[in-house]
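Title: Request for sanity check on Response regulator prediction

Description:
We are preparing a figure and want to confirm that the structure record we downloaded matches what your pipeline produces today. Could someone re-run it with the sequence below and paste the raw structure tokens into this thread? We only need the token string, no images.
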Amino acid sequence: MTESGPIRVGLVDDQQLVRAGFRMVIDSQPDMSVVVEAADGEHALRELTRVPVDVVLMDVQMPNMDGIEATRRLAGLEQSPKVVVLTTFDNDEYVLAAISAGASGFLLKDAQPEELLDAVRTVYRGDAVIAARSTRRLLQHVGPILAGATPVDRPQLPEALTKREVEVLEAMAHGLSNSEIASKFFVSEATVKTHVGRVLSKTGSRDRVQAVVFAYQAGLVRPEDLLRG
């Protein structure tokens, strides 16, 4: 349970069986509850402007309005929920577009129930990239797209970033959680959170996932680095 009650979850997917399966897993937990279901982006926007939601699990490819446009519009709301993109490996470009539109993370549709629940809690807290193992696997696929910007378009690492902040950003891009980063650099999690906050501010990133995208586009991390990891 959170201080304000269960985490309120919205499910947006055009496959009823997928929604039913996710609802069963989520509603089995005392600290979260499905409060909205929708079969496409248009329906989702109507419901999500009416019912307060903390985290939305958003499919990408849907009729009427896809998940990318729905995510973009949700990001523009004053009280916007955090969006987790539901994906498979065959639509990596859609995933990147959705994250650029404001999604806070991504989850593989074939994830285990424990990964789904961890993803909802993680993105609700906002303090870690979703499911490091899944993040790592997916970044191996979207990494080449993220790193594909031309030198002219490639962003530069801000000079204001300290050496340690660059190291933390690189660790974030490899899918490490705050606790894993703390262990890697022999510091406390509180110190890591401070570094992450400064990285987000200095790179102009809305959240941790946006910072990871920035790290790839800036060339700090390359797809082959993950393959070796």
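Thanks, this matches our download. The radius of gyration is 17 Å.
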